[in-house]
Write a structure and sequence with these properties.
Layout lengths: L3 H15 L11 H22 L6 H35 L15 H22 L6 H33 L35 H14 L4
């Protein structure tokens, strides 16, 4: 039903290709969903780097933060779409686990998301390892991190394939885990309340948090 080798190969191929060429999605079926979900992680990785640039202006950081919020929402929506596809595919195949079947704490969609992030981490660690100006100490530190990241990727991909097999055989239950993000919803985020019909307003605690942050970040007069 799901071949994790195909998915990890997709992550590796897209990571390498998208650093040289525009992002594309030539896949079909569930692999197209995997590629689309990975696209958000790819974009998020590089936006996170931009947000930490010491020379970035406040306006740039604010714009990047909004971009990160949007991409993260899209990333989580795409994880749910993967899990919804899996649930529909199991139902289509008539696979129903028996009463009392176990359910993992993490869905297969969330695991695929983590594998994509590890693929990005491994790529960039290798990039650091191959820097012509890297010192021996830098290469040693990066090499240690690369070893751990590669080990984690191998272990997680094996565990994900085992979960896919258990789900396909009806040995475990699957249920889409809803993220229920609130911060981008005008009806649930009090700071977006001016656009919300519910009329939510910032609470006393909200105002105290803002005041504390401003006191910490703004220079003393």
């Amino acid at each position: 039903m799901l071949d994790l080798n195909q998915i990890t190969a997709l992550h590796a191929r897209c990571t390498k290709l998208w650093h040289r060429e525009p992002i594309d999605n030539p896949y079909a079926g569930v692999l197209a969903l995997v590629c689309d979900q990975f696209r958000f992680n790819f974009l998020l990785w590089h936006e996170e780097d931009r947000a930490r640039c010491p020379q970035a202006s406040d306006a740039t950081i604010a714009a990047v933060k909004r971009s990160i919020d949007k991409l993260n929402q899209q990333r989580n929506d795409a994880i749910e779409q993967l899990d919804d596809w899996l649930g529909a595919e199991l139902a289509h195949r008539g696979i129903a686990p028996p009463d009392g079947a176990l359910q993992n704490t993490e869905t297969l969609g969330s695991t695929i998301d983590r594998l994509g992030i590890l693929a990005l981490r491994i790529y960039h660690l290798r990039e650091q390892l191959e820097r012509p100006d890297a010192t021996p100490a830098h290469r040693e530190r990066v090499g240690q991190k690369l070893y751990v990241a590669t080990l984690q990727h191998d272990e997680l991909s094996r565990s994900a394939q085992e979960l896919a097999g258990d789900l396909a055989a009806g040995r475990k239950r699957h249920h889409t885990y809803r993220q229920l993000k609130m911060y981008n919803d005008p009806a649930l985020n009090p700071y977006l309340a001016s656009q919300a019909p519910s009329g939510l307003v910032p609470t006393r605690l909200d105002r105290e948090i803002v005041a504390a942050v401003e006191t910490e970040l703004l220079p003393a007069k």
